[in-house]
Amino acid sequence: MRLQLNTKLRQKLKPADVLQITADSLKPKEDCAEDELVQIFLQRLLLRNYKARYISIKEASSDLHYNQSGTINKNEEETFEFFYSGNPASLGQAIHKDPIHPMDVQMAVFLCSDGFLKQLIVTKLSYCQYALPLLVPNPFTGGIEFPLWAFQQVRKNWNSSKVSGKVNNMASAQTPMVAVFRFGSISTSKSQLINSLINEKHNTFFHRNCPGSSRNRLLMDGVVEIAWYCPSGKITDHFPDCVAFCNLHGDAETHEKQLEMLTKMSSVNIVVLGNPEKGSTHTQTLKKLYSDPKPLICLFCEDESPVSGVKKLKYRIGLKGRNQAAVSAELQKTLKECFPNLSTTFSLENVDKISGIRTDIKDNPECIKQKEAALQIIKLLKGMELSKIQEEYLPCQGTLWHDWCKRNKELHRVHGADIERVISKNQNEMKQIREKQAARGLTNFTKLFIETISSCSTENEKSYFLKWVEILLDMFTADDLSALHQLEEMSKELKAATFGLVHILREMGQLYESFVSVDPETRQCEKEVVLSLPKLAAELLTSGHPLELMDGDAAHVPLIWISAVLDELIKKLGDKKVFILSVLGVQSSGKSTMLNAMFGLQFAVSAGRCTKGAFMQLVKVSKIKLNFDYILVVDTEGLRALELTGISTRHHDNELATFVVGLGNTTIINIMGENPADMQDILQIVVQAFLRMKKVKLSPSCLFVHHNVSDITAEEKNKEGKRRLQDKLDEMAKLAAKEEVCDAECFSDVIAFDIKNDVRYFAQLWEGSPPMAPPNPTYSENILELKKSPLQQGSKLHCITLKQLKCRITDLWTALMNENFVFSFKNTLEISVYRQLEEEYGKWTWTLRSTMLRIQDKLYNRIKNNQLEKVEYKLLVEEMQDTFENVKSSMTSFFESEHEKDIMEQWRVRFENKIQFLHDDLIKQAERELVGILELRDSEKQKSQYEAKLFEKSKELALSLQNNEDDEGKKKEQFDSLWEKWISELTATIQPMRPVAIAEDIFQILCESYEVALVISRRQCKEYVEIHMLCDYTPYVRQKKKSQIFPAKTTLPLDDQTSVRNLTLSVIKQTKDLIKSKPVEQMGYNPSHIQEIVLLVKQVIKEHKTSKYKFTKEFSVDLSLFVCETAKETFEELQEKFRNANDPMVYLQNMKPRYYCIFQKFCQGASSVVAFGASMCSKLGESILQSVYNQTATDLADQMKSDLPEFNGNRSKLEKHILKSLAEEENFQRYKTYIMSPQEHIKSFIKEVVCSYMEKENPRALNKIMGIIAHKKRCVIIAAQSTTEEMKKKSGDANMWLESFSRSLKDELVCETEHLSGYYCKDISDLQLLTEVVKNEMSLITEELKKNLNSVSALKMEKFRKRPDEILIEQFCHCCWVQCPFCKATCTNTMEDHDGDHSVPVHRNSGINGWHYRGTKNLAIDFCTTSVVSDWAFVTSSDSDTTVPWKQYRRAGPKYANWSITPDLSELPYWKWFLCRFQKDLENFYSMTFQGKGQIPDQWKKYTKEEAIKSLDKYI
Q: pTM of the prediction?
């Protein structure tokens, strides 16, 4: 109860409970309260601090009080008597609560732990050179338990005549065993005596004189502990070979079971005889031991004699009054005499054969079951030569995998000519290797392993299985590996013979990569098993097993496998944040040892094998507030590894250091000693790695740890050491800066570094000489201090999520594969975050645009209803205020709450400014449009007058015919005949609107500027139609030479072709902007608009300065014809709208159906009120219809942004769907438009998608339309009813009713009632009847509207004030349209004038843009993303011999410098398929061929359209 372990008797402590990082685990404590004893014990033990047993208990006031019952006024002599006699009742005395015995703490924790934590505890105790519990009495059942499972990870090594440097599993090691026990109570400490035989400087066995020891121990009596003496092979060794010492605690006479078991197992028995208890029967036991042939040594506490032999192998030694050192020497010498004559040896594995012992293996069904399963695995290996096992059972990771890695590195470092052909060849060979790996598939060994581990139903079963496999494999390979380690010339055989759990897991990774890469469809069952492997690996990672990040044998990161495992880890844990702690240092500098001590991990440090490659392991953070959930610990192989000598060690070290430094938030640099000269190589490598990180905008931190420092407390010496380190770092920074071609004068220019806090000095690991030396407690204390440091930094640093970690690993390794890391590094995490930000930006801009469209509709209604006399900027700002504030709030929330807020902060101000700019621009644009409508309102008054007269004439005619019995047809004939007369009378004084002839205007204006014959001929030949997409502009220019102009005989060079095309596209864009600025819909068309366009073309051509050529007149005429033809289509459409709205003849003719309806009403005897209401509702019906169109346009655009994948993302996503659409169509003309005029193609694509969407059944949109109609009907009826009620109160007339009614609908509908007001209201007195008429008429009108709009396809595009496609074009086309100067890929940035470089997810073959090999007609097949890693050069101008290396393409000029083209050696099937599919079309278009250097590789021709389309999802 005092240790707070009462709840752990049933629910045992697990490793996960003690290994997670908590606030308490970071606090060093010299003393503690009782309830903290367990925690502090485990904390120190995991740190391998042997002071774990020596914890001072902080006594609380409740545990300690003083008795003051004595008399205090006695004289001094009496007081002395009391003091001397020690009468506790007479003097003030401290009364203590009984302390907890240190070994009771250890045993209590041990008893309350599960099997895996027991194993961890025993392993750590062994590391601390402490004795281990061998036989443990259960305090509840009284049974004897033997924790054999706990011993399975105990490893020790020694040097002797039989064994040399071999690491032994002590569970199976055969050694002599010395059993030590006592009879009776003794004055000499038995445990202390044994310690003197093992290590006189260390308390291997806890004894009565150890700190904290007390008489009242509860759990140690009857416990048998074991410890081994391991010789070093020196003459100072106590014993020539390894010896086990077993110590029975307590009086052996009271622990008969343990004594019997112990003496059965022992090789030598040592009995310490004290004062026997009354009735003792130990004499019989002694007689039995004396008769036994085993050596017996009796130590007599009451005897003073030295060692003496009674008979062979029977010795007695006296202890009384003798020096312990002398006794120890005699005992040591006696044991040496005994060992050569031993007939038995001891092994832990044999202990469980003794009856009466319960073992944690035999009594654990899970453990037994998984041991049997592991034995089945090992059975497959029996009889095979060790060096052949990998090749036979793990074929995917051997030669095949190493060959693949070699090809992959060659692929990324390709040199020489025919680069694309070499790349294609390498990719093909890599694919063939993957096919061979997949063909080998699951061997019997891997299949059985995977099936067994997959069948484990609990985490415990899985852990037992893996541990047993690891243990049994170690035992299986140990002897052969030990022999091979002695022979350096057999290093290849040693590599092949190394076989462990890591190799099995590596094979799983390679199986997965091969199956994913080639997708073998024939072995579906096997494929399902293989595809489940990442999930299995993720489970192992979460349960505490390390995952191989970099294959040390192949020096390669299996990206596909690692990415898949991390994906599964994210599914299991969520996208948690991780703090990444990595370590670098020379080989055998104690990196793994340090990490294991720091976090209680189990990175491999045994078997004499150094870490190879890199491993990562998760450590959970709990009950502590940090900005991460896990620590990801990355352990690495040593730099300057001896086995890499002669294999480009420096390059390998640079690669590893860059990868590890880039990956980690903090990297610990492990340095042995303090001599800067010894550090030089590693420091240069490390500094260069940090410099690279700075250049790619990554900001890791570092800590330098000096190991094996003799005096870490000497402050002045440490100051000097730090100064020397700082000087050396500064020197290395300068050297690295030269190599990386950048500026850095000191290490602080490279990384934020504080020499005071970021340099640590560690004591020596061992307190003495191995193998018997315990770890140095000061080292453990240093470890705890170091552990706190990165965690404190981690709370300030930007920690990444698991998803981001996956991207970071891919980015780093991909860049490292290339020769120039900085140039090749592509921060896909940053790109991904930016794309995400672009999507949010699209949502914010759409919110502003759609809101402004609704505001414009509302204000348009107000203007038409005479409820708004002036449009002010301030009004629009107020209308937009709530939405704008919501958008700004959304932006703030997004930037501050996202995981990647540290990355996004760099763009925050830019995006906030862009949103502000868009907001202001939308308001200005709306203001211009609404002011234009307001200016046109006066012309509407004339229409109202016409309508009023028509209403009156219709009424008069109807009343005159009211009693006429003519049928409906006759009355209609009379109405029709008079209607024409009325129209003629009303428009008698008005000049009819003259039809425009824009085509004639174009011809006339061009003829004024150019020769008539030229204009006619150019118009007739129609060559101008594709002037914006021509490949060859040579016919349009005259080339200059030596100040003379002459017709071109040779084709215009590519750069000049591009220049002419860019000029053409620029003119087209400027023309469209000019067309857009003309208020044709409001003011009508004017021939001066065409005049402006023609002058614009002439001016731009005139300003185009070049010394190489001059444009022909044909070019000017053709370009003018093209842009004027574009303007004609737009102007005609707008003019038609203007005419319909403003030509009285057209307008009045369109009113005929309405007034015929009024005429009918009056003919049928309807009152003036009914006719009045019908006329008003007829106008409202038209307004409702227009309102449906206006609102539906925005709603449809919004719905399409949500429903259609083309529109629900950023610009890159739109591009992907365009490319898919083009591939499906396989139309070269469409591709040509997309390549040459991407903006036009995207607009066309959006229109097509919108039209297609509107032709389909769309219940949701239809419901919205019906909803709008119902809402407007309700608004009208409510307005009529409320207005009538208002008029009753005010005694208002019909004119007042109309005015109030119109005001009520000012934001909802255009309610034009001017033609019904004034004189025409004189007969309207029954306002209640008018309300009923409105209600009935609106029901009829809305029902008719619903009938006519029974599907989305019934909507007519010309009726929209702004069509859905126009809304979406505005949303998506206000972006960047700059094209790559090499391949014409269009920048996919969402913002038009964005900061930073232009970029695209996927570049194309430069031949698509007409690039060809100089001096030939051979189109280039190279992708610019592969060319930039080549040794080639290009020319920027055809008339120049100056070349620019591809690797330095930015030097070629501004249009090159503003592009970010990072190396990408991916397959990119899409554009390879395109090149093969349209080879002839491209050759005809450019009048060149894909021959010679430009010959298309055969491998490209194997790509199918389906593969090309599918690849877009991977690369975009």
A: 0.81
